[in-house]
# Entry
Amino acid sequence: MGDLRLSVTVDAPPEIVFQTATDFAQLAAFVPGIQEVEFVCGGPVGLGTRFRETRTMFGRDATEEMTVTGWEPPHRVALSSVSCGCRIVCEHRFRPEGDGAVVEFVMTPQPQGALARLMMILMAPLTWMMSRTMRTMIADDLAALKAEAERRARVGPDGGSPV
# Structure
């Protein structure tokens, strides 16, 4: 499975879109596929932040530990996790476009070791079907991010005046 790439245009400034995408504590409140987010470490969110995300994937609840491995507000955030011998890097890039922003999402699988690389080759047909499901899930996540960022741009972060 190669990189999975999707993008969405959001009618909100990149700063608000970045703040919304990195509001990990609230993800379960506005991303329908996420049931729970539990922080592994305290402190402000940034490079090195770790949290467990529980979401429904392929009809089952799955929990992955995510680590913030890239942090460039308000332009980029990258999250990494390791599962089944594969490191997955999910990167969101935010760039201005008109009065809004474009969010570019790239998910890169990085097999860890020869066995994981071999399994990736052998499982290619199944992986292709899984990538279609993943594409739909990520598109739904981006649609939820768009809706929430646009809502926050209208009402402001505290529910009051727009920013």
Remarks:
- Strands lie at 4-10, 34-39, 50-57, 60-72, 76-83, 86-97, 100-111.
